[in-house]
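Morning run. Coffee first, then this:
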Amino acid sequence: MLATSQPLTSARLIVHERLGLALLFALLIGVFIVLLPAPLLSLLGRSLSDRDGHFVGLANFHSYFASGALLRAFGHSLLVASLSTLLVLTSAFATAWALTRTRLPLRGWLRGALLLPILAPSLLPAISLIYLFGEQGVLKAWLGDSSIYGPLGIVLGSCFWTVPHALMILLTALSQADARHYEAAEVLGASTWRTFFTVTLPNARYGLVSAGFVVFILVFTDFGVPKVIGGQYAMLATDVYKQVIGQQRFEMGAVVSVLLLLPALLAFLADRWVQRRQAATLTARAVPWQPKANRLRDLWGAALLLPALSFIGAVIGMAIYASLVTYWPYNLNLSLNNYQFGRLIGDGWSSYFNSLRLAGLTMLAGTVLVFLNTWLSQRTPQPQALTTLFQLLSLLPLAVPGMTLGLGYIFFFNHPDNPINGLYGGMTILVLCTLTHFYSVPHLNLVTAFKQLDSEFESVGESLRASRLQILCRVSLPLSLPALLDVALYFFVNAMTTVSAVVFLYGPHTNLAAISVLNLDDAGQTAAAAAMAVCIMATCALAKLLHGLLGAVLHRQQRAWRGA
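And here it is:
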């Protein structure tokens, strides 16, 4: 009797454990619905209501279309996003080719330099371009009669901060090359250019398409660059800000936010469709391609890297220099006066420390939540309906612009009938919005990490009567630590640099460093704005350095049992 009761008890425990995990997963999905679909539905509802909250159908949309503002702002946004995408793809592909197809020395350092813009707020390039090409800029003569305030400045600033996003995708695409294809082209006597157009470019086409959609969405929905350097050039993202902050017309701000969401959503869906059609470029029989020594090709690579490195170096260097100049352009002596924020803005350094709090809390909460959700969906038995719903919700933030999400949070969390409306204006709502806005990329990162773990771990654990929690703590978590470090850094950096998602949500005591950059620039304190932007970038660079050190220590500790 005892021999048969023990298996029954173990089976009952397994059933109870699976039921508990399913209930926990359902609860977390419910939380996610509150954090994303609910605010978006509130935004849609407000766009169909008048100033007093009465339902008016599509009257607000008709009014906005009739004013001509839509065609102007939408056309400008489409033009700027298209030009930026074309320039970024050209530059990023050239630099990715140079880093993967040559044997240039210090390629790791060169790659790090090209990725530096991802550590800076999008406001920094706009401010730097003003010092370079503005009315009193050091290179104003280069533009002749043209002005940096408008589409030219927006395109240049957008290219600066979106190049790293495209570069990371294209580096991955170009790294997955099969040496057999190049050997076949060489045997057949194909020229270098013919090999490029028949082998290299086709293998990277899906990476190019994906990078193009990413850059287009980022530029189309960006608020920081056009706000600082756009002048009177109307863009959809800045139109949302003008409707809400300038005119207090929340219903019209909701209309523009819905319109801002649609192109981003279409681009996102198109990118998903393209990725589903992608075929594997590396098969089990593939031979990884390694560049051979070729002096001429290395010179070509250096020439291709020079423009991007020069542009990035000029923008970052100018921002640092401008932040140290006493009074531009009349007193060029270097000092730290612009870093004395206490005499320039009412809260002094508190906005910077608020950003540190936001970044730290978002990093901790986001890393835990992403890990728990991904573990539940990938490594535990869950109902198919819950898993499908979660996959949809986890990818949805990629298609939601920050301005749209932030405005939706106002309508949802600040509604008088919402029992948690007290969150508005506090640090908690800033953390929730930032976590939701940047959720998708860390989720995809951890999904990739979990898929690399053998599914037999759980089967063996169950045969040894180990609970899922024990397997999680002893196997899944230690094996996922490198990916978790990447997730933590991603949340920290984006929380430090974000503007659009939180520009409507901060309160008197929760002002943020990136918002202070915006406010200082509006007040004419451009040098101080540059100083705050440099502080943000330096903090993110320090976090990246710490991430690298921790990653090296972790790799050394795991090297023995990983067999590396």
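The beta strands are 325-327, 331-334. Good start to the day.
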